[in-house]
Amino acid sequence: MHSRFRSDRRLTARMGVTLFLLGLLYVAFIAALIVLLKSWVLVVVIAAGLLGAQYWFSDRIALYAMRGRVVERQEYPELHAVVDRLTAMADMPKPVVAVSAMDLPNAFATGRNADHAVVCVTDGLLRRLEPAELEGVLAHELSHVAHRDVAVITVASFLGVIAGLIVRFAFYSQLFGGGRRDQNTAVVFMAVMAVSAAVYAISFLLIRALSRYRELAADRAAAQLTGRPSVLAAALTKVTGDIARIPTRDLRTAQAFNAFYFTPALGREPSLARLFSTHPTLEQRLEQLGRMSAELGEGTGR
Questions:
Q1: 1 domain residue, yes or no
Q2: Is position 140 annotated in a ligand binding site?
Q3: Closest to 213 (Cα-Cα) out of 278, 275, 258
Q4: Marked catalytic residue, from 133, 135, 141, 298
Q5: Residue 4 falls inside a structural domain
Q6: What CA dihedral angle connects 49, 54, 56 and 60, to 10 degrees?
Q7: 141 an active-site residue?
Q8: What is the model's pTM?
């Protein structure tokens, strides 16, 4: 599928390098687990099953986790009209359209390819944005589908998810069952926990590096398709500002999906979370859109 979204060779190269490095890490991780657990069949079957589930059902998993539901044209005619217009402009298949009942103003795209993609917006986003601003946000999300980076980030995040689950399993097994195990078993569990923690840390850093660049690439592609970088900048400023006013406890439930959001669910206060954010800073994104607006000769007024 070749859409009219401008191709980004640097993004493609970064995705290839990230997948290659994560592939090597994945093989080493599985090999280490096989050596430690002495059961290659169990490790391979579980890993393959979970990877397949994440790849084939990522759209359903994301919609369920984010309280999203598929909506028909009769329910949200204006939303469907915007998606129809953008997919026609981009010459790409129309994704499934969904709406999340969350007040958090945001949007995300998921799915393994353009023919099996979902674009979801929250009620909070629909209430806050003007039609032109909504178009900019949806163009941003559709570019993720067109560039295939949404599929790459889904697969890439799998290794970190599995490593994190193993760390938790090993921790709670030691915590609640340590007294019933011999010393050798305890050593094996600690080794598995250490290897999983290291894999999680490495995959975390690789995914963050890719995720930040892909967000800048999506901003560029959306601005080029719509021809209105300043409108996308206005939407970005409005959404980021409104998210900062949402109580922190309400943001925590959404932060696990930050890598897929239009803008991350981060509060106002500075924290380590910002240093390891899945997105570039608001200033970086606005600066890029400002340069594009000047290059396109777009007026500053809206």
A1: no
A2: yes
A3: 278
A4: 141
A5: no
A6: 130
A7: yes
A8: 0.81
Please give the tally of structural domains in the chain: 1
144 known ligand binder: yes
Whether residue 80 is annotated as binding a ligand: the answer is: no
pLDDT of residue 248: 67
Alpha carbons within 13 A on the beta-carbon side of 48: 6
In a domain, 174, yes or no: yes
Burial class (CB in 10 A: 0-12, 13-18, 19+), 105: buried
Task: Write out the H or E segment, with its range, that includes residue 231.
Answer: helix 229-244
pLDDT tens-digit profile of 233-267?
999 999 998 887 877 666 666 777 788 899 988 76
pLDDT tens, 165-217? 666 665 665 544 554 555 666 677 677 777 777 877 887 888 888 889 999 99
β-strand partners of 100: 68, 122
Contacts of 18 (CB under 8 A, 6+ apart): 152, 156, 206, 207, 209, 210
Structural domain containing residue 282: 9-296
Residue 82 · residue 135 · CB < 8 Å = yes
Phi, psi of 49 (to 5 degrees): -65, -45
Share of the chain above pLDDT 90, in %: 37
